[in-house]
Amino acid sequence: MRRLRDLPGLAGKRIVPKLEEFQVAGDQLSSKKISQFCLRLEAKQRLRINYGLTERQLIKYVRIARKTKGSTGQVPLQLLEMRPDTIIFQLGMASTIPTARQLVSHRHILVNHRIVDRPSYRCKPGDTITTKNKTTCYIQVSGESLQKDKVPNHLTRFFSNTGQAAGLVNHMVNRESVSLDINELLVVEYYSRKA
Question: Which of 51, 102, 173, 183 could form an SS bridge with 81, CB 3.0 to 4.6 Å?
Answer without folding.
Answer: 173
